[in-house]
Amino acid sequence: MEAFNYQFTALRGMQAGREYYTVMCPLKLIPKIFLFDEEEIPAELRAQRVLNRARIPEIARYIIDNPTAYVFSSITASIDGNVRFEPREAHGAERNVGTLTVPMTARFLINDGQHRRAAIEEALKANPQLGDETVSVVFFVDAGLERSQQMFADLNKHAVRPTRSIGILYDRRDPMAQVAYRLSQQVPVFKGLTEIEKTTISNRSTKLFTLSAIYQATHALLQSSRGATLTRTDEDHACEFWTVLGDVIPEWRQIIQRQVSAAQLRSEYVHAHGVALHAFGIAGHSLVATYPDDWRTRLNPLGTLNWLRTNPVWEGRAMYHGKMSKAGLSVQLTANLIKQTLGLKLSAEEVAAEQQVKPTVKMRSVG
User: Fold this and answer.
1) So what's the pLDDT on residue 51?
2) What sections of the chain are H helices per DSSP?
3) pTM (predicted TM-score)
């Protein structure tokens, strides 16, 4: 009968009075035995979210591009069938090490990891040699749909994604992430003033910008695609741009010299927030492209622009109802104003965006 069974070397554990098993499953077996609920099944009759197929190519590409360095966490699945665990020893240290036998007629239902499963299937098509590698799988013996749905809820209830900043800090594959970190250590207005773990800054924090904000702003400045190779010239250019800008804006000079606190700048000025930093990157790219030889001196008007949050010009752009906004439109409208201040022409898309600004807070309100 073994020909009609799957057999896995397994570790047996116990949670909430129920046995579960951890096995090493060959990647080539993953698409054959693990199923996810079809999209047309109503949510109340499924034990998983609908598969987001847009995520699959990126995950598959991660495996394909990093065949000697990819890392996957365990897949969690339920088995609907009669399983048998045979320990190596009846007593002692190996009583929970043995062979897990599962009938081929059993149904495997993924509780956590359906996108990894789909990505593995796609990666195997491009590189079949990955098939003999393994991924750890945690098996629970299925106790029905209700139990599987509760498992899904429990597994995701306490899952917390790492912050964008710490993800950038630890990312060794994305050249821009490494550039952003080095900029945070070199540029005067960033050095010692960058929050490298959190994506938001508390009111009393001594930090001015987050690492994720520097990443986004520098990405906009250099206009490079994710994962694209960056040269030392690109990094030097970004470092020079942010350094020169830090010398142009009076309040940035003050915080570099530690004459004012980061908390004070954030409470009073628009330029002390990520939305403005991102906008500087967008406008900076256009400025350097338009005036490659004298962009440095052309930054000077930004030093006399009224950056106070009380200036009505920022309402409907960087701010809504008196609060700073991180929305994409806010970034674009803030960049538009900066570009206009620098004497740069707006694109057709940027002109169209201007139609969403209230007439009372258009460019004429600067001062």
Assistant:
1) 74
2) 30-33, 56-65, 114-126, 145-157, 164-170, 175-186, 211-222, 232-248, 250-256, 262-268, 274-290, 295-298, 328-341, 348-354
3) 0.70
